[in-house]
Write a structure and sequence with these properties.
The protein is α/β, with parallel strands linked by helices and 396 residues long. The protein has two domains: 172 residues, Rossmann fold (3-Layer(aba) Sandwich), CATH 3.40.50.1970; 202 residues, Up-down Bundle (Dehydroquinate synthase-like, alpha domain), CATH 1.20.1090. The protein has a six-stranded parallel β-sheet with strand order 1-8-5-4-2-3, sandwiched between helices. Strands 6-7 form a two-stranded antiparallel ribbon. A hairpin with a 4-residue loop joins strand 6 and strand 7. The longest helix has 23 residues. The relative contact order is 0.11. Bound molecules: 5,6-dihydroxy-NADP and zinc ion (ZN). Zinc ion (ZN) binds next to helix 7. 5,6-dihydroxy-NADP (NZQ) binds next to helix 5, strand 6, helix 7 and helix 11.
Length: 396
């Protein structure tokens, strides 16, 4: 296991109906002028918006709204948010939504102090280390883990780039996780969010660092949590415990718990970010399509042991031949995504062969997948994986 620092100062307020008693005190620590950031309107439909406006009015807050944050949030929307914060001298940002809203709010928070445009800030990537306005979040979709980490992913559709940026200052101060706020998440987004949680776990699980029983055991437990509870949430959207388990798994899958102490770059995320950058598809769906193909592509004498462990501990596969067991685990992963209603080929989400090579080259340019991934992948490898996603697959 590698050396690491684990410091995740986000104050998590998990559970039912905490906002009315706690939100005002949380915000008052930072000031009275609040930027209320949200997406395309789901919080207006489910009543959360009205509840928040009442609570904020009762607390004497001045509320400035940044609405219409897109899935795959755009750099122009971040610029709009920064301008609002400067014009109204905002004290604290309250982001209410999924990963897109929270990510946009994080970069608005840092952009407030940044002299250049939001896109210049994003281009600084992990070298950015400036200050940010305080951020409080109310999570409404279990998926990205953005509620408990310092990263944000912003899209520039003009240049077909979707890039991550992050700094300690962008970590949410407080995140309210009420599983009831995810009851209205539609089946497609519930499945996509679950695929995203699983992918965060896979990206950290399949790494070369030895001796990481804690991280791998926690990951396997969280993977089983997601594969158990996603179907329940799809069948019964208001099953509190299913939604609660997905929500907490979302946060724990990407807050450093399973990734710290292991080195190496991720694989499916850089490949997926290009699909979103060029075709604006749902992040979790792109990951679900790529994952089994990537697993199968990197299966070798060197990796088969880890895939057999995965098949056994996550899917309960007792087959003794390592390669057969590994293939069965990959098939189980594919079948799981399909059973959740996720389209499992690129053409089904509107992607054909045309830009596969360009996207593969960009994936390699924008990440260290070629040098530091579990199995390093060249642009040719990435193109082959994309091509494999054009048709249905079978592994056993
Ligand atoms: O915009 P609204 O109207 O709120 O609707 C959203 C949106 O259409 C809807 N939704 C959210 N909560 C809902 C709801 N609908 C009904 N009821 C609710 N309670 O769901 C749709 C998708 O929302 P979005 O925020 O885009 O989804 P998600 O949380 O999956 O976020 C995806 C973004 O996060 C990035 C992705 O790349 C993508 O841009 N990621 C961020 C990461 C991070 N910060 O750590 C890591 C991830 O790997 C990921 O890259
Ligand atoms: Zn993700």
């Amino acid at each position: 296991m590698d050396n690491f620092r684990f410091y995740v100062p986000t104050d998590i307020r998990f559970g039912k109906n905490r906002l009315s008693d706690e939100l005002a005190d949380v915000l008052n620590v930072y000031g009275k002028t609040v930027l209320l950031a949200y997406g395309g309107g789901s919080i207006k439909k489910n009543g959360l918006y009205d509840q928040l406006l009442q609570l904020l009015a009762a607390n004497g807050n001045k509320v400035v709204e940044l609405s219409g944050i897109e899935p795959n949030p755009r750099t122009e929307t971040v610029d709009r948010g920064v301008a609002l914060c400067r014009e109204h001298q905002v004290d604290v940002i309250l982001a209410v939504g999924g990963g897109s809203t929270i990510d946009c709010a994080k970069v608005v928070a840092a952009g407030f102090y940044f002299e250049k445009s939001a896109w210049d800030l994003v281009l600084a990537r992990r070298t950015f280390n400036g200050p940010a306005l305080p951020l409080v979040t109310i999570l409404t979709l279990a998926a990205t883990g953005s509620e408990m980490n310092s990263g944000a992913v912003i899209s520039n559709l003009t240049t077909n780039q979707k890039l991550g940026v992050g700094a300690p200052s962008m970590m949410p101060k407080v995140s309210f996780l009420d599983p009831q706020n995810t009851y209205t998440v539609p089946p497609y987004q519930t499945a996509a969010g679950s695929a995203d949680i699983l992918s965060h776990l896979f990206e950290n699980y399949f790494k070369a660092t030895e001796g990481t029983d804690v991280q791998d055991g926690v990951s396997e437990g969280l993977m089983k949590t997601v594969t158990k509870n996603c179907p329940i949430a799809l069948e019964t959207p208001e099953d509190y415990d299913a939604r609660a388990n997905l929500m907490w798994a979302s946060s724990l899958a990407l807050n450093g718990l399973t990734g710290n102490g292991k080195s190496g770059a991720w694989s499916c995320h850089p490949m997926e970010h290009e699909l979103s950058a060029f075709y604006d598809i749902t992040h979790g769906v792109g990951l679900a399509i790529l994952t089994p193909r990537w697993m199968n592509y990197i299966l070798s004498d060197k990796t088969v042991g880890k895939f057999q462990q995965f098949a056994q501990n996550v899917w309960g596969i007792t087959e003794e031949d390592p390669f057969t067991a590994a293939k069965m685990g990959i098939q189980a992963t594919y079948d799981f995504f399909k059973s959740c209603g996720i389209p499992m080929t690129l053409p089904e989400v509107g992607i054909d062969e045309e830009k596969l090579t360009v996207m593969a080259e960009q994936a390699v340019t924008h990440s260290t997948i070629e040098t530091a991934a579990y199995v390093p992948l060249t642009a040719e490898d990435v193109t082959a994986i994309y091509k494999d996603c054009l048709t249905e697959s079978s592994y056993i």
